[in-house]
Design brief:
24% of the residues lie in helices and 26% in strands. The chain is built from five helices and twelve strands. The strands form three sheets. The chain has a five-stranded mixed sheet with strand order 2-1-3-4-5. A hairpin with a 6-residue loop joins strand 11 (250-256) and strand 12 (263-266). It is flat and about 65 Å long. The chain binds zinc ion (2 copies). The site of one zinc ion has 8 residues, from loops. One zinc ion binds at residues 240, 242-243, 245, 277, 280, 282-283.
Amino acid sequence: MTSGHPYCGSSASIATMHGKEIVMAPILYHWLGVHLVCAEQVNTDVFGTFTGEIPRTGTMLETARKKAQAAIDATGCPIGLGSEGSFGPDPDVPFLASGSEIILLYDAYRDHEIYIHRKTKTNFDHIAIHPDQDLTRFLLRIGFPVHAVIIRPEACNEPRDVIKGLRDPDAVRAQIKIMAARSATGRAIVQTDMRAHLNPTRMKSIGSIARRLALRVRRLCPCCGLPGFGPVDVVRGLACADCATPTSLIKAVIYSCRGCSHRLVRHERPMTHLADPRYCPNCNP
Ligand SMILES: [Zn+2]
Ligand SMILES: [Zn+2]
């Protein structure tokens, strides 16, 4: 299936301390014939930690690029991968958590990068709690103990006062007491540990994005043969069913190549496919 692809038989490396290669390697091998190894020498914490001991600087894309390059530098593989996640309150839906993941592949030989960046499902959450309060509902909601937690004193930004990767209920209770005692408010913060090896929800997302990336990499530019030909933009303006005014709905997808700028319009809606008038700026201003 993969023979004939320029990456088939190549080795690639990923800088991760959280076992991401375990989920990604079989996917890259299946779809591309690429052998993925872990660049164990790279300390990815230098690119920032979720708990703030080392702040994250730059965008997710920039960090993913640095991680991919670090993996290449450490192993000498011609291809490097970088993965980066981000979690926080959803910008569109209040009180809902949102996650996003990026996985980037860098081909050093061709100086060519391909990446996928998508919103993902997440259990990202936290609670401020007194040692005598019941934590059962929170722990159930976040999928503990399969998903680990982090505990810290409330209203305290001392990164040393953070204990991570807890999966044992007794240890959680004990740490809540210790961390609450260190806080002026008498409460501890319990939050989800977002590191991939301690968060199966996140690991699953990484797997599904790795698959999307592999499928994208597999598609070669019909013009120059470079891997990663795929959707880069959409064409809006699907006509209103009542008055034919162009709406903001999508009527086609633009595929493009980063190497030679070859473009193709694909998935064009047939002429009979029209927009619901409620999306029409003329019928429903
Ligand atoms: Zn091309
Ligand atoms: Zn209309």
